[in-house]
Amino acid sequence: MKYAVLAPVAAGVTADPSWIGPYTEHAEACGFESIVVVEHVVVASGYSSVYPYDKSGKMELADDLDIPDPLDLLAYLAGRTSRIRLATGVLVLPNHHPVVLAKRVATLDALSGGRVRLTVGMGWMREEIEACGADFETRGRRADEQLRILRALWADTAPQGASFDGEFFGFQNLMSYPKPVQEGGVPIHIGGHTKAAARRAGRYGDGIQPLGLVGEELQGVLKLMRSEAEKAGRDPEALELTLGHSLSVVTPEKAGKLAEMGADRLVLRATPTKDLSEAKDELSACAERLGLGGA
Questions:
Q1: Cα 253 to Cα 241: distance, rounded to the nearest angstrom
Q2: What is the C-alpha R_g of the chain?
Q3: What is the rounded distance in angstroms from the CA atom of residue 35 to the CA atom of residue 267?
Q4: pTM of the predicted model over 0.85
Q5: Are 8 and 271 in contact (CB under 8 A)?
Q6: 3-class DSSP state for residue 121?
Q7: CA-to-CA dists, residue 207 to 129, 216, 253, 266, 267, angstroms
Q8: How large a percentage of the chain has pLDDT more than 70?
Q9: Strand bridging mode 170-174 / 162-165
Q10: Residues 6 or more apart from 55 whose CB is under 8 A from it?
Q11: φ, ψ at 252 (rounded to 5°)
């Protein structure tokens, strides 16, 4: 099992370099696999969109909370660390032009020594997505093209370059360098709870993070993802499953039960606090319970 830490954005500390830098350094020293950061480019004050992961229909984050750009934040953390992997969870894919995104992510992977994992979602806040220039209703079809474009621009297509002709994007003979350090490009995981997310993960992804699903619903999503991978001529057993848990209460026994469900990685939610010492102590206690054996 791999254990990742979700940066505590709800505490309003992830844009503070004197807080998030030492926190991530400590997570690395404790032996956690990765640090995970979230994204909202903008939040519409009093949004009418329904957040699908809480009965209230509202996310726990305040409208005016500091939510730094995830790739810029990860670039900063890459310079503060040397081993811990750097992940988004999730990056709202409709907010990004894929040609620009391919260059930004490849650059981050190259400069970090191949430590990036990209987890993307389709987004739920219509107001945010439309403000970024994308059509909310067609964001799924658009995302399928975006994922193919990322793969194409990361691949070695010299000397002619990459070309693409789709419904939303098109280009001819583009050269995009640097390439990601990781063989095959940066791993792309799909976040979401829908059948469409499962199909997308099977066709184009390296794994899935099915938010809020358990039991038969979770197994159904996994079965669909693997079926789609087989149809696409891909190895279904190579696709990872990432689930969530709490940093403060996870135990080897609980992690073992999630592993039996197929989990390869747990993204652990930290207790929101502005007290850096408390936050570090929570990391240390969790690492000791799990036997991570940091440096």
A1: 18
A2: 19
A3: 9
A4: yes
A5: yes
A6: strand
A7: 24, 19, 24, 13, 14
A8: 100
A9: antiparallel
A10: none
A11: -55, -35
